[in-house]
Design a protein that fits this description.
Length: 406
């Protein structure tokens, strides 16, 4: 018994001896921010950065796991002066070039601002970081992406951050699963967020405004949900699903004022669009391409700026496209096979409520309300217009121009 006790005791002591305690580093007591990060042991720790403007010309490199970097809010301002395309921060395992399986776990950044210039690279570039976490970070004016995550596969999280005026995406995600992007602001980047070759994206409660390109682009990703987001005034399209997306739900989003479109199902199958509001989408509110099959569009509102009493909030014509009243419906490309359009409201539209560009199959258009559609179509144009020889069930739709009795 005594020998077993001694063995266990020595094992515990030996285990503790091999584990260094994470440390706290005050960056204000080091000659540079890089020196502060380099002061962390391999076991990581906390780096606090006091208020101040910190100008850099080379990327700040974080090489340790179990590391948290915390500033003093916007008063801690990292300014990237590099004009050769380098990022402000690189979070990356130091051995990744020689060991492709190298990774770091649980690197976090919070409560600081990272700004760049048109010739700088990404704000924060992260590769091979598992359970990465960003909270309360401001990332703006970079020549690249705001945050760029490459193969940060396990549980990446971005919450309560703001991404503004970056020349590429506010957030760019390549590879990853169980991704959380919640309660962030995106303003006037090129695209708001791009999620590529991933799965289980949970994107909720974000405000995405005034983008020069598109709002959210998702490619080769499945099992994801976008809900409760406000996506407004993109020069392109609010949400794009492309390259073998499947099993995605887009629900309870407000999709307002887009020069091109609302939701573009370019290559998406088995997806649900429900309880979204589409207003002021100029070319289409939803487009379903020939590569998108077996989708459901239910319980949505497609509308213009009608405010009641026969009045629209915006004029029919204006000096710029963004100034005019517009509402559009659902565009179905020829070749679509499998689509349900049920229980939607279409009103005040320049276009038809639903129209196809060619023959479609297995399409159900049922129990929809149609009011004041086809404003810019020829008189007596059909508001539900599907190509001849299509396999379509049109049933129980209430069209205000219909004279039939119930």
């Amino acid at each position: 018994m005594k020998s077993i006790f001694c063995f266990l005791f020595l094992s515990v002591v030996g285990s503790h001896a091999q584990t260094a305690t994470p440390v706290t580093v005050d960056a204000g007591k080091h000659p540079s921010l890089q020196a502060a990060f380099d002061a962390l042991p391999a076991t990581g720790g906390l780096v606090t950065i006091p208020p101040g403007n910190y100008e850099i010309t080379e990327p700040l490199r974080v090489k340790t796991a179990e590391t948290r970097i915390v500033g003093s809010g916007a008063a801690t301002h990292i300014i990237n002066k590099n004009e050769e395309g380098a990022p402000a921060f690189i979070l990356r395992p130091p051995t990744l070039d020689t060991d492709k399986k190298a990774e770091l776990w649980r690197v976090q950044m919070a409560d600081l601002r990272v700004s760049g210039n048109e010739k700088s690279g990404d704000g924060i570039f992260a590769e091979g970081i598992q359970e990465i976490y960003f909270e309360g970070v401001s990332v703006d004016h970079h020549g690249g992406h705001g945050i760029h995550m490459v193969h940060c596969t396990e549980d990446p999280r971005v919450a309560d951050c703001i991404f503004t005026y970056n020349k590429k995406s506010g957030i760019e995600i390549l590879g990853g699963h169980d991704i959380v992007v919640n309660a962030n602001h995106f303003e006037e980047n090129w695209d708001g967020l791009r999620c590529i070759d991933a799965f289980n994206l949970c994107m909720n409660g974000n405000n995405i405004d005034d983008h020069l390109g598109n709002g959210v682009i998702i490619e080769n990703t499945y099992g994801s949900v976008l809900s409760g987001n406000m996506i407004e005034e993109c020069n392109g399209t609010a949400i794009i699903l492309d390259r073998d997306c499947y099993g995605i739900t887009l629900s309870a989003n407000v999709i307002a004022h887009h020069l091109k479109g609302g939701i573009d199902l370019r290559d998406a199958c088995g997806c649900t669009l429900s309880a979204n509001t589409f207003v002021l989408a100029h070319e289409f509110s939803v487009r379903v391409s020939k590569d998108s099959e077996r989708n459901t569009i239910s319980g949505n509102t497609f509308c213009n700026t009608y405010i009641g009493a026969g009045k629209d909030k915006r004029p029919a014509e204006a000096k710029t496209p963004m100034g005019i009243d517009a509402g559009t419906g659902v565009l179905i490309e020829g070749g679509v096979n499998g689509l349900i359009l049920n229980g939607n409201t279409f009103s005040g539209l320049s276009t038809a409520a639903v129209w196809s560009t060619g023959v479609v199959k297995n399409v159900l258009v049922t129990s929809n309300l149609l009011m004041d559609c086809g404003r810019k179509l020829a008189k007596k144009s059909a508001w539900l217009s599907v190509a001849p020889k299509s396999t379509v069930l049109l049933k129980d739709n209430l069209d205000e121009t219909s004279t039939s009795e119930p």
